[in-house]
């Protein structure tokens, strides 16, 4: 790509403004790093702390719009901003005043990783312990590989077709940039296959380096060897490499098999499983879902940035006309605590009487402002880009479901997960005799939808599995639909990038 305004400095004495494209960002106003600590701080800046994909769940069938709420709301901005995503417009960013930020953010993150990878071997330690210096260099280098893989994994799943073993060698992917060179060459797309090869190789090398050079940073806001392995399990699932996905998920669970036990939460506060509207519920210390994705939970392996769901799916009914799809709420079985732990019903007086809708509660509102209707988006509002052990059980279930003779193992993985999410006396195990190799996949995908809702998985799952027909209504008489295998399951390249880099090409519509 030709350089535009994003990647702005050179590693020559002073890192100064020099480039013009998302693929070449370097942090500004930073003297050339020399020590391991310098690169530690530099890589830390590569982790994305802001909202960059707030439209992701809006795209999925877990979202709906309640136009009747518009007349009662003091702020419909979120619904208006993401209307183009909700209606699957040719470009999802059309109604977004600042455009799509994910493309820029993930390439920026990858560039920070590139800076570390190119220079960390020459970095000096903080003391004369050469062995310790080598360990820190190796660990940080491994982390940089993993962060780069994470960036490219998200990019290829947003802006390129889903991985298909039979077509990935020719399907257009995304550009790859593995250097910090400042030049004027265009960056053309690599194939989906080549992007996934890079992701896989980066993750394997990153895991190797971090395991050989262990260092505990004491935070889940950055990758370690375990969370990197969990990401690799996810990547193999997307690549349909079932045996490798099983292997990696099992390695993760061998080290950490914790689950968030909702039975404990239910026994402490049975009202969390009540479906009625509770007027003071959202101000309560017992608010459902507030700690489900908390960084200090033992089952949580990695978190990245604040929740993507505020403001589109707010905890306050007046903030937006978007809602959780009632169909999702109704898919939960009797006794499944997740139904009302993740989703709550709210009501407002409209022009024609009381209007109801569902909102998501699956997050951790630690500092919810009691009596204050100003909602601040910060770390206390929770996370939605999360890697946790529940996903590993679901990866096992799906991978085994694709394997001949894997039915029993698939059901066993689902039962292990489900038992921790139901009221004990209402729980019934899934039975192998009730499923076939053809029907178990539907159950696995259902369980993924129920457990991972509003964590950014659903749209990616729809893309990589069935890409089904979907229909919805917008404001007034506006109707929107996707046909099966619709090309709009691939998001359009942001216009800012197309303006400076037409060689990248638009995605088909």
From TrEMBL:
Localization (cell): Cell outer membrane
InterPro entries: SusD-like_N (IPR033985), SusD_RagB_dom (IPR012944), TPR-like_helical_dom_sf (IPR011990)
Domain SusD-like N-terminal, residue spans: 22-237
Domain of life of the native organism: Bacteria
Keywords linked to the UniProt accession: Cell outer membrane, Membrane, Signal
Boundaries of every RagB/SusD domain copy: 379-508
Short name of one Pfam family: SusD_RagB
SUPFAM superfamilies: TPR-like
Assigned protein family: Belongs to the SusD family.
Protein name listed in UniProt: RagB/SusD family nutrient uptake outer membrane protein
Lineage: Bacteria, Pseudomonadati, Bacteroidota, Bacteroidia, Bacteroidales
